[in-house]
Inverse folding.
């Protein structure tokens, strides 16, 4: 209970701050719009059957790029004033920090999906099944974002203090999230084709997500602390 | 001097033995030994880059030591358990507060997190009032001056009613009234039974509140002066001033003999 309550308190703090400056949400949503417009300009003239092969890539490339952008900033508020150090010294379960940041990242990614999925449906006729089979679409988007954010939050926390974190994050993030993204691509393709194994694929994806989130949660404390413990302490900035 | 805390006889909240730490080939701490008793304020002095912040980071569990042991209330601090962290507070050089939250929200968040961990806290409003921030409690930290943010940070630490306080230059950016207030609060906390390690370059304040002053130099505690061993405040000031300016081990030895 202590862990859940602390995770809730920290996630609520993130949300409260986000509602005061909309920094992450506005950046992520505008970025999503931009990517969507670029896809439209480049691929609107594709035949519908060709579109249905490209749409999974449009969706998950957008999630991957927006996710990287969000993960690069998710610890920024703590980093600017080193509030993360205060959290680490306080009687706070490190797992609660991970859970709160995972929740924040998920919220931003799902918000972007609310923009990009209807956007794809409006612009590309081949994306119409995403709307027609909306329960499966909801599950797919949730699972894809969860796996991506689960792995990403682990490394965002580990790199929260280092210089060049965005470069390192991208180098680590994309290879490690490839299994989730590949599963998401296959599941999206099956959803568009109304494939009979769609739900089985989603189930496998859920199992992969559980595995990734559990491993990430177990590694979070040691990765975040060790990366700090072996770095030079800095005098904080005001 | 009226306060005569004795780290030898008190139950020790903090005991460091042979703490060593290097960054690459550069050795910062080479075996620091330090004991801090309950109800004792220890002033930690040293030149810039002497390793004071590194030492504090190790005690707070933010850095690991390459060697030595760091125990708090008979528990190894390396373990970093929640129950142990609930009993200490660290006020760093910067405020470490959420800038978009108000001072009250920052303190309430810390209190709620402690409450979730089963630790009690003092009331946020009262702490902010004690630090002279009652009128600014509902302003965001980003609108605070550096000194006000430092006061808010101290208020958050005090709200935890810690058994051990690590204060890394807590007087930074405070005006004279603020410095006097913080000194007064430190004495109150000591009288309550808290052990305090105070690092500051403000010699006057360190002298006025510390039961003893230790010098961190070349990675070790190279000298120490205890307030109670001095005849009067003038002698104490003279000894510590000498301690703070010594550069050679031989002179430290001389100061030790003087003390």
């Amino acid at each position: 209970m202590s862990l859940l309550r602390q995770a809730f308190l920290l996630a609520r703090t993130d949300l409260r701050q986000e509602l005061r400056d909309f920094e992450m949400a506005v950046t992520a949503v505008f970025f999503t719009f931009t990517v969507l417009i670029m896809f439209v300009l480049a691929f609107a003239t594709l035949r519908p059957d060709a579109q249905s092969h490209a749409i999974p890539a449009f969706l998950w490339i957008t999630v991957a790029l927006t996710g990287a952008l969000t993960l690069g900033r998710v610890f920024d508020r703590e980093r600017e004033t080193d509030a993360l150090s205060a959290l680490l010294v306080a009687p706070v379960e490190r797992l609660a920090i991970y859970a709160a940041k995972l929740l924040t990242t998920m919220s931003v990614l799902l918000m972007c999906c609310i923009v990009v999925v209807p956007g794809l449906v409006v612009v590309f006729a081949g994306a119409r099944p995403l709307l027609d089979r909306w329960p499966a679409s909801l599950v797919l988007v949730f699972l894809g974002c969860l796996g991506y954010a689960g792995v990403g939050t682990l490394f965002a926390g580990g790199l929260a203090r280092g210089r060049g974190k965005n470069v390192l994050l991208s180098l680590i993030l994309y290879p490690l999230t490839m299994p989730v993204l590949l599963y998401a691509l296959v599941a999206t393709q099956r959803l568009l084709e109304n494939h009979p194994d769609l739900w089985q694929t989603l189930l496998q994806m859920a199992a992969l997500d559980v595995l990734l989130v559990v491993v990430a949660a177990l590694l979070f404390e040691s990765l975040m602390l060790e990366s700090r413990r072996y770095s030079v302490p800095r005098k904080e900035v005001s | 001097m009226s306060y005569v805390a004795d780290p030898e006889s008190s139950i020790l909240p903090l005991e460091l033995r042979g703490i060593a730490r290097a960054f690459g080939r550069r050795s910062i701490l080479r075996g620091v030994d330090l004991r801090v008793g309950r109800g004792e304020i220890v002033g930690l002095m040293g030149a810039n880059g002497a390793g004071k912040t590194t030492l504090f980071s190790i005690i707070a569990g933010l850095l690991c030591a390459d060697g030595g042991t760091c125990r708090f209330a008979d528990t190894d601090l390396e373990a970093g358990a929640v129950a142990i962290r609930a009993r200490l507070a660290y006020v760093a050089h910067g405020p470490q507060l959420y800038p978009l939250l108000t001072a009250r929200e920052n303190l309430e968040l810390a209190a709620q997190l402690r409450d979730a961990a089963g630790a009690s806290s003092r009331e946020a409003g009262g702490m902010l009032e004690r630090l002279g921030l009652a009128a600014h409690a509902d302003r965001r930290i980003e609108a605070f001056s550096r000194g006000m943010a430092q006061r808010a940070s101290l208020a958050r630490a005090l709200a935890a009613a810690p058994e051990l306080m690590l204060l890394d230059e807590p007087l930074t950016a405070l005006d004279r009234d603020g410095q006097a207030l913080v000194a007064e609060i430190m004495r109150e906390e000591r009288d309550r039974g808290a052990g305090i390690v105070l690092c500051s370059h403000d010699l006057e304040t360190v002298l006025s509140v510390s039961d003893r002053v230790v010098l961190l130099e070349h990675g070790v505690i190279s000298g120490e002066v205890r307030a109670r061993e001095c005849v009067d405040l003038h002698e104490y000031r003279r000894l510590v001033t000498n301690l703070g300016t010594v550069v050679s081990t031989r002179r430290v030895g001389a100061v030790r003999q003087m003390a």
Summary: The longest helix of chain B spans residues 176-192. The first strand of chain B starts at residue 14 and ends at 23.
